[in-house]
Amino acid sequence: MFPEIATLETLLRDVAREELLPRFAHAQRSVKPDGSIVTEADLAVQERLAGELRKLTPDVEVLGEEMSRDEQESLVARAGAGLWCLDPLDGTSNFAAGIPFFSISLALIREGGSVLGLVYDPVRGECFVASAGEGAWVNGERLLPRRVGLSLRRCIAVVDFKRLDRALRRRLVDEPPFSSQRNFGSTALEWCWLAAGRYHLYLHGGQKLWDYAAGMLILAEAGGRATRLAREVSVAADMGVRSAVAALDPDLFGQWVAWLGAMPGEE
User: Is 40 annotated as a binding residue?
Assistant: First the structure.
């Protein structure tokens, strides 16, 4: 048995209020070996949530983004009955700079796939949740499939350019198939905003497990579709880096995949 979604949602809200928001825009930060930023808020939220999850589900391990690579790989290898995948602060650069777009992401992974996902945006008080086969919700409102009736040329796309290869970056800049482009800086929350229909197309060149474990499930349960760029090996949840091509509207998804030359199948 696993905790009710309501219990987990309350936990994320409480931890964000007590550990995250008081440190917003003035947290002590440092640079990790891979060049990314970590703050005292990342560490405080991870420690607090990991401790609470171990109390709720003592038989389920907790993988956090701020653990060492060796620890993470060991946890994935011995996941057993399940594995909590936690990003304590997705959008750390935004958070440290005072940009109000960041989130906490939590997923339960079983047999290589996410079966439960929550992404909490503490600035807007929005908690996106999904359970495999049961749908997706934001603050109690069901997220439903939709067709927007737009051509690709009229769409807004969220694209992370820095993780794409040079040829594709140049093509997207010189021959954009969409109307305009954004990049918000919290991958987990970007998945959720797509699921809520707040933009139309998504492209990211390199996500890790904690970036997509919850958000991709939320999009799928809202009726959206996702795949990867062509020539990339498709595997179950692991510690590798993966690209993401996605849309909520199935017609736009097909057009987007065709323009990119991405893999035609959905995840």
Answer: no
